[in-house]
Specification:
mainly alpha; 3-stranded antiparallel beta sheet; 5 helices; 47% helix; 10% strand; elongated
């Protein structure tokens, strides 16, 4: 078996090259840093598999996060973007409900989430 150590940038590049994933550059970098930090926290190497990462994590816009996890706050949300009138309150409730799954909140307004 041949092993190779990846830099954060190399890992992000591999994530971005995955034609079946939809990462932004910022999202790929955040996810690569998360995996690197996880490896350091565990004190052992982590096998990097872009397919497994694509299956376990997603990058969501605020609208996508509401659509995917809105049910977690126990109230009906409109199917269109009219929820935006109460955006801060709703986003706060959703982020609190899925807090343990949010890996990163990005400067571009997106979220990296370990899908439940």
């Amino acid at each position: 078996m041949i092993k190779r150590t990846l830099t954060t940038s190399e890992a992000a590049h591999i994530l971005l090259a995955d034609e079946y994933a939809n990462w932004t550059y910022e999202g790929a970098m955040a996810l690569a840093r998360y995996i690197e930090d996880l490896s350091e926290d565990m004190g052992e190497d982590v096998e990097f598999c872009h397919v497994a990462i694509r299956c376990d994590f997603s990058e969501y816009t605020a609208n996508d996060l509401v659509a995917q996890y809105g049910y977690t706050i126990g109230r009906d949300l409109p199917s269109d973007d009219s929820w935006a009138a109460n955006c801060e309150e709703i986003m706060s409730e959703i982020k609190e409900a899925v807090e343990e799954h949010i890996v990163a909140e990005l400067d571009n307004g997106n979220f990296i989430v370990r899908d439940c």
